[in-house]
Amino acid sequence: MRYQIDTIPIWDALNLDSACLFCALRDKTENLLVERYLGASVMEPDTRIRVNDKGFCANHQQMLFAMENKLGHSLLMQSHLDVLSEKLIKAFDSASKAPKKSLFSKQAAKVDNTFESLIDTCIICDDLSENMKRFAYSFLHLYKTDNAFNERFLSSKGVCLVDLSLLVDMARDSYSNNLYIKFLDDMREMMLKKIDTHKEDIDWFTRKFDYRNHAAPWKNSRDALERTINLLRGHCIGAATGKEEKTSNAKNK
Ligand SMILES: [Zn+2]
Ligand SMILES: [Zn+2]
Q: Of 141, 153, 223, 133, nearest to 13 (Cα)?
């Protein structure tokens, strides 16, 4: 699939020098989406229909709730409940018509999914995922065409494992074989170096719990656990990406 190329957000995120360029983009985009869904745009009929149909996951409900716009949030939930009650009736209808679950019944498995579909959709997750694909597409365009960008990126802190997976998937689909192999080589070197640094930092962090190292300097290990978690599963601990690295570096000096 082709996406529109927009290189400015990619350069902006790279300039933040955060632990993962794409986590920085994701954090920013996610916050904008949460604001958007509580803002005026949600009154547009198309958007409203999508919200009513999909609802929000627990994580995004929490983010919406934290915006402290209880009236706006309640109005979204009010019309979502209307749509949901219709779906719930259909789910019960089809469940009561179906035979009881047996180990070998495919139909029973389908009935289970009817209820599951009421709780596994989120419009913000969907929009975020589309945005991230668009960013990945623009990133891969820069990697392919702009040497200055390449140099900067390959000497940056790179990406987390979640976004490595996103980029490799898309590179496999959109690059020529040679370019794909070159991209894999560059990413391999970058990621292995990054893992080594984290291993070293978290190793020193654990040694600091030994009373014999009490007076030794922290080196770059104070936030090694947070950084390692964020590297493994995308930014989920600590302040918004970008701010996090700067404060932790300052602390470690
Ligand atoms: Zn990331
Ligand atoms: Zn969500």
A: 153
Task: Note whether residue 68 is domain-resident.
Answer: no
The answer to whether position 12 is within a domain reads yes
The alpha carbon of 60 and the centre of ligand 2 are apart by a number of angstroms equal to 5
pLDDT of residue 103: 63
Neighbouring residues of the ion ligand 1, judged by CB less than 5 Å: 20, 22-23, 160, 163, 234
Please check whether residue 91 lies inside any domain of the structure: no
Report pLDDT digits (tens) over 24-60.
Answer: 999 999 999 999 999 876 778 888 899 999 999 999 9
Task: Give the pTM.
Answer: 0.86
**CA–CA dist 218, 223 (Å, integer):** 10
Place of tokens 């404060």: 247
**Residues of the domain holding 144:** 8-55+121-252
Q: How many Cβ atoms from other residues are within 10 Å of residue 174's Cβ?
A: 17
Please give the tally of structural domains in the chain: 1
Q: Which ligand is nearest to the CA of 61?
A: 2
